[in-house]
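Predict structure. Chain length: 226.
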Amino acid sequence: MLATWSAGLAAGAALIAAGRVVGPGFLWLVAGVGLLVGGAAWAAGGGGPAAIGTIALLVAAAMARRPAVAAVFFGIASIGFLIVSASLGTWPVAVTGAVALGGVTNEMLLGHWYLVDPRLPRRPLRRLALAALTGIVLDTVLLASQVGWPWSVAEPGVGWAFLGLSMVSVVLVLAVWLALKEPAYSGVMAATGLSYLAVLTVIGAGVAGRWLVAEGLLAAGRLTWL
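Prediction complete.
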């Protein structure tokens, strides 16, 4: 999940940098968060692609005052961590997990900049919410299709937790979307706060779902990393 999360963070930062939505402060923030998560993925055995991703995040942070260049290196970082994530599972699940986690985490981080400057356009926040919602739904469907019915495995509690956290994540992201329709300052405040909760539930759903897949592969005698 660490590599998947890093890939999503970097991809979202690349799009935001390319759109020149905010100044270098946000890019430093998301690069710092990405380095914490991505560095952990590298330390956990991510290998060469994780090393490339980590270095690319460092360069992106250094080039934060040149957003077009920073966007390129954020993109490189995203690809590097996505390769790690896909090598531990499958490409579709790596992509959907990255979209879900990247969308909701960048939503939360970017929301803080809107609290500082409420005059910023809200379109990027809405797009991140839409990306997060799409990623959550697709990730849930893909994981469930690999597992079968989540409650049919040896640990049905994990299956129900997976479904419950996925449903709560969808509700929270929809609430973020609705909060952003409120034109007052409180709308972005509410959306940012809801995004904090969504980050936790999306991580929980992702971990539970991938644990179920790993358990199924173990039972079938063909366990791979997820």
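Summary: The first helix runs from residue 2 to 19.
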